[in-house]
Amino acid sequence: MYPPDLIFDRLQHSAFRRRFRLKLPEYRYLQEHGLAQVLQHAEGFIAARLAPARPDNDGRQTPFRGHPVFVAQHATATCCRSCLQKWHGIGVGAPLTTLEQRHVVEVLARWLQEQEAPPETPRKAAPKTDKRQGVLF
To answer: Whole-prediction pTM value?
Structure first.
């Protein structure tokens, strides 16, 4: 298992991993529920979707959006077992140990803590309708 500082340095060199940012809904979710609760969710996701020796749909089990943890998993290459092997040095074919699961959650926590608020996108104003529309005179 590689040290987190090395992993984050390597991730910065990947255009694919660098593009992940929390969008407004995920950022708001993180702010409303707090990091501690989101990390509890992460522990559950990791235990169910990543920890088994041969996870169901490995390589496709992590959505790209819908929860801050999902975005963080793709950004930190903790989304599937092959990414864990390539980026974190955690082997495939055996269940994740408690230490390896803790490593994944700590990497996710670090990435989530570093996230800045996304820009608010202004809502488009409803088009003005002329109440006189259709009146000829």
So the answer is: 0.82
